[in-house]
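Request:
Um, any thoughts?
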Amino acid sequence: MAEEKRLMKGNEAIGEAAIRAGCDAYFGYPITPQNELTAYMARYMLDSGRVFIQAESEIAAMSMVYGAAAAGGRAMTSSSSPGVSLKQEGISYACGADIPCVVVNVARAGPGLGGISPAQGDYFQSTRGGGHGDYYHIVLAPKSVQEAADLTYEAFGLAEKWRMPVMILADGLIGQMMEGVVLPAAVDPGARPDRPWCAGGRAGLAREANHVSSCILDPAGLEASVRARFERYERIAAERTRFEAVNVEKADLILVAYGTAARVCLGAIQAAAKEGLELGLFRPISLWPFPKDELARLAKAGKRFLTVEMSMGQMVEDVRLAVNGTVGGAVAAVDFFGRCGGVIPSEEEVLAEAKRIVDAMNASTAEPRSGSARR
């Protein structure tokens, strides 16, 4: 399959990008708002002679991903928020066994079953290792259908390079919207890296009989394994942190947002420019590893931040951790604006909040009127 351009839903673009990236096996279970992805894989994976299984549950689907990936396949699953919660045990197992795979979360509103509207309340679950134990995995957050396809395509290579699951954290709006997308050319299956660590020993396989497991019963051995994994995390943070910065050097106030919320912020920035107000956007693309160093640099330059999320505030904690204490020992100001329950903030709301903050900033630095200063 050569590179081509199509008009596609985000869910479908993710599926096509996965197929072109060489996904050998997809295991899923239906849940809104990502059902188009499962349906797409059901149709086109079988057409290309690959494995598609609708499992009996989300737990089973993630377990099948573990098995297929441990055997050397490029394996993937997808779901939406409560379904990903059910997959977390298997994700923890995959992280503990250093198994590469791809997990897609087209997030919806919660907690619990919540609603089927887009939301960003899964940030903590995704970036903090939502299962048990000490681990992280790469989390990539697209803001468009094009980026959803690109990041999914890239995710398989990242998973194999770093031996871990890679999560694509989109939201229901990105999954459901239609945009033009340039799809990459299909990878050559023969160009894949060797996997000497995979399970083997079966007739016809050259690999040794490896045992792929996350179970290490010796405490000292388990500690050494976890510490080695965290050293790898440091290398990932140094090499793979990604972000987009728009007008941040000139901005009076920098909006920090990802995914759909970042699209809203871009509209607010354009509206602000018409009123002579300079706003910037800092958009993390890798939610883990989080681009904290660049935020710290902006804080040292004296910038102030407004974090905008489709939640009650989760990424804002990482923003505050990144910038606090960076300006001569002082705390850089971070404000928050969010909507939840599936409500998407409007450009007008974000602009009004930004103007309120900028007006307060200007008032605090204004010279006192004559006769009003205290003696």
Q: What stands out?
A: The chain has twelve helices and 16 strands. The two ends are 78 Å apart (CA to CA).
